[in-house]
Amino acid sequence: MTHPLLRRVRSLVNPIGPLDVRLATAWRRLIRRHPALDALAVNTTDLGSMYTVAGAAGLLAALGRRRDAADLAIVGTAAWFIGQESKRVFNRRRPFEADPALERLIKPPTGSSFPSGHATVAAAMATLMTRRSAGGRRWPWTAIAVWVPLTRIHVGVHYPGDTAAGAVLGWSIARSVERLVTTTRD
């Protein structure tokens, strides 16, 4: 038996499908006129992956920011695993599965479309690190949090609703982990 709250959340996700299709189609029509942007999207879409979490945490540790490195690793890993488990709950078809005519620019990812795991990870990293970085050092994190969800739509593997949900989930995870880590250390 499915929990009533889960049934309610699922009912909210499914009706946005047609709107998601229209928004994603409009985005791809607008942007696909630029082959250089296609290549940029393909080559940067994984900035919301565990590879980026590991690389960024390693760089922070090398720069002497060990606490930030550890917290980023925790937040990124939590975001990835929670995002992946959320996909099992919703089991939403990906755009290229729903429309075989849709051009996919990357290899087909595994798992459900909702929520976007890459958007979840990107938002989680950005949420933590924009709060911990000085003014001029915040923009790369913010750029990743905005860019990665757009690339996931662009390469044909997610709908806008998937990436929006992933961003909200990532933000929530980062804030929760940050509170937990701060409370534990105090």
UniProtKB/TrEMBL annotation:
Gene Ontology molecular functions: hydrolase activity
Stretches assigned to the Phosphatidic acid phosphatase type 2/haloperoxidase domain: 69-178
Subcellular location: Cell membrane
SUPFAM superfamilies: Acid phosphatase/Vanadium-dependent haloperoxidase
Keyword match Lipoprotein: no
Alphabetized Gene3D superfamilies for the sequence: Phosphatidic acid phosphatase type 2/haloperoxidase
CDD domains: PAP2_like
Pfam families named in the record: PAP2
GO cellular component terms, A-Z: plasma membrane
Domain of life: Bacteria
SMART domains xref list: acidPPc
Keywords: Cell membrane, Hydrolase, Membrane, Transmembrane, Transmembrane helix
Membrane topology listed for this record: Multi-pass membrane protein
UniProt-recorded name of the protein: INTEGRAL MEMBRANE PROTEIN (Rhomboid family)
